[in-house]
Design a protein that fits this description.
The complex is a heterodimer of chains A (151) and B (612).
Chain A lengths: L2 E3 L9 H5 L5 E3 L6 E3 L10 H5 L5 E3 L11 E7 L4 E7 L5 E7 L51
Antiparallel strand pairs in A: 1-4, 2-3, 5-6, 6-7
Chain B lengths: L8 E11 L3 H13 L5 E4 L14 E4 L12 H11 L6 H21 L20 E5 L2 H10 L3 E3 L2 E8 L7 E8 L5 E11 L29 H8 L4 E2 L8 E3 L7 H6 L4 E2 L11 H8 L10 H13 L5 E3 L8 H14 L1 H9 L9 E5 L13 E2 L25 E3 L11 H22 L8 H21 L15 H15 L8 E2 L1 H17 L8 H26 L10 E2 L7 H4 L1 E8 L4 E8 L6
Parallel strand pairs in B: 1-2, 1-8, 2-5, 8-15, 16-17
Antiparallel strand pairs in B: 3-4, 6-7, 7-8, 9-14, 9-18, 10-13, 11-12, 12-13, 18-19
Helix pairs in contact in B: 1-4, 1-11, 2-3, 3-11, 5-15, 9-10, 12-15, 13-14, 13-15, 14-15
Classes of the chains: A mainly beta (151), B alpha/beta (612).
The structure holds flavin-adenine dinucleotide (FAD) and iron/sulfur cluster (2 copies).
Chain lengths: 151, 612
Amino acid sequence: MPTFTYMTRCDGCGECVDICPSDIMHIDPVYRRSFNIEPNFCWECYSCVKACPQHAIDVRGYADFAPLGHSVRVLREEAKGTISWKIRYRDGRLKEFRFPIRTTPWGSIMPPSEYEVPDLGSLGSPLLAHEPAALKVALLPTLPALENESP
Amino acid sequence: MSLRSPGNVKFVDTDILVIGGGFGGCGAAYESRYWGRDLKIVVAEKANIDRSGAVAHGLSAINCYMGMQWGENQPDDFVRYVRGDLMGLVREDLVFDIARHVDATVHMFEEWGLPIMKNPETGHYLREGKWQVMIHGESYKPIIAEAAKKSAEVYNRIMVTHLLMDRTRPNRVAGAVGFHVRDGTFYVFRAKAVINSAGGASHIFRPRSVGEGAGRTWYSPWSSASAYALLIQAGARMIQMENRIVLARFKDGYGPVGAWFLLLKAPATNAYGEHFEAAMLDGMKAMVGKYAESTPLPTCLRNHALLQEIKAGKGPIYMHTERVLDSKEKEDIGWEDFLDMTVGQAVVWASQNIDPRERPSELITSEPYVMGSHATCSGAWASGPEDCAPADYQWGYNRMTTVEGLFGAGDTIGGSAHKFSSGSFTEGRIAGKAAVKYVMDLASPPQIDEAEVDRLRTSVFRPLQTYAVNRNEIVAGSVAPHYLSPLQGLQRLEKIMDEYVGGVSMFYVTNGPMLDRALELIGMLKEDLDHIGAEDMHQLLRAWELAHRVWTAEAVVRHTLFREETRWPGYYYRADHPRLIDPDWHVFTASQFDATHGEWQMSKLPVHHLIA
Ligand SMILES: Cc1cc2nc3c(=O)[nH]c(=O)nc-3n(C[C@H](O)[C@H](O)[C@H](O)COP(=O)(O)OP(=O)(O)OC[C@H]3O[C@@H](n4cnc5c(N)ncnc54)[C@H](O)[C@@H]3O)c2cc1C
Ligand code: SF4
Ligand code: SF4
């Protein structure tokens, strides 16, 4: 199955259950640990893998087309703003990559309600929040006057 | 809650209800809060907004950015490009509107902390192609979700099943109902305006991989067509539902090809090393005339060429990654492309010992998808921007559908292709602002019909009851005479669509008689939807996703039947009408479902060209 959970690492915290967009990571009632209840609705999106504090979830590529023996592991470090990947081929080759994920502190986005209250008279204008400044051009483009149409 | 009784009811009153917290929904939440400081804004999201929708993985590019600040492109250039790619048929007012605002959206994303790559020579954003910019986008969705969570009350894990209409004005929206996927609470949202941004549809057609690999569809498996089904049943006019999209992608993993083709400039050849596209141009002109002369060659025609080559027995088609990865920097870009947005492709390479520096990778065309934000434009007929739209394209508020108070964004809105992530968010912003104005202008708020709410409540939970009652008839296993599981229903739908409506097993070919047969079988499947059995809340979620897919599929079939031509070879072929016929079909196809009589009305709507 695409994701699976290592019995000895999972502590049943439920982070993976909380994040899975497909609602397929569930807690097994007997073992009190997570498992993938519907592998054919798993996108290998790695959301659960990245969220697990115990690194207890791994992926085994779809049986239909992925031969055994590979692994693609990930470490996502929010505080550092990076994500690191370790890719092991079936024949043992290794590749490693690290990429940035964010340039500002988590939680730092200014809520729209903290900007100066806009003039409601401009509700009818086509300008959106922070425009035209945010466009970085002087004016919002408008269509040349509506002309004739051709079929 | 017990499996035998419907859930407890929770009422939520709000000014604006946003259905689906993906790119369109997050944009709608942000903008409506900016303008509507005192309004209540609620997002109902069936998953967890931090990683929901088509961007759950992340993305490696922003595919819609003009670069007006550097004079790179102007909105009218974009309209010409999108019109050419869609074989002439787009809502130019909507496309122009996205294009003129999208740069501001991208600048906001950068300010919020999304790492956008820079071209070291110019200092501009690093272009993947003319319209795309490269990002380090693993956290694209959580960053955008942070902005949305600061704008609206987000209710996670609510599957919205139906819209509610006003008791006194049947063509006005009054809210929506749904259920909590974990605890079974029945939610009744009473809203003055609703913005549907519930995303497009995978799993309408049978995927190429039918085992575990069915999960690795190109569009996310949780894109379950709610953007369309909710609107169709509410009587909104839909357009271009026949315009399904087929993608040329890396085989099986469905890793995107954009960065490889455009940035790294990897060539594609047949198995014998031959470049095949150019040689087919004359044949394509015979089918579609001048549209084959657009540059770049329209997406559907590129598929067409690839398909012809495979049918001629010259596959596999290869993308020659090995010819272009001549530096560590390029290797990083190539891998990040997948690790950011389609990890499954990296898994395929590792498992099959494919090192892209050493050997090429296979390309193939995917199963068809129904959506409105990529190189395709299925969706709702929407009112256009006041200052751009011709009179017959506007009836009130920008991005309002033909149902009063019901707006849309992203995959929901038809006729405006190539929005992608940034354009979908932008469209959410446009709809959000318009919805605030609508709410402020509203004289009398809509009233829900309590009898209707009761009826929906019973119907929403019926699959649990169906299972509980009929399960006792059999010993064990999955075969029962009086219910179907949601997965069994889905497999039936996918088989019908694949075999009769132009899926991969038919090389995307269909015709009138096949479409009639599909309608007959879908009719029976719709009846069988009353007999879906759900063992638990998760299956109840799947049951309603199935219902939304079936309604959407029916619209696809009806539109495909209506348009008697082959306009997008490479997406699908009407074998009985094999050519593009501009005199009859340079129009949008439109449908409207009338719930009172259970009837669909098909019509043609004019395509106005606003830009030379
Ligand atoms: C593999 C892949 C690669 C892509 N690459 C790029 C790229 O490089 N650059 C780019 O710009 N774009 C790219 N896109 C396109 C982009 O992801 C979409 O255009 C965009 O996400 C569409 O936005 P949306 O809001 O319409 O849908 P989504 O973002 O999918 O949001 C829909 C939301 O609605 C929720 N929902 C659905 N049904 C219900 C319901 N019934 N009740 C409640 N909530 C519901 C979903 O959970 C989801 O959160 C790519 C997409 C894919 C799949
Ligand atoms: S997040 Fe990790 S530890 Fe927690 S339940 Fe899931 S697999 Fe187990
Ligand atoms: S990889 Fe994605 S779809 Fe699969 S179980 Fe994890 S979160 Fe869910």
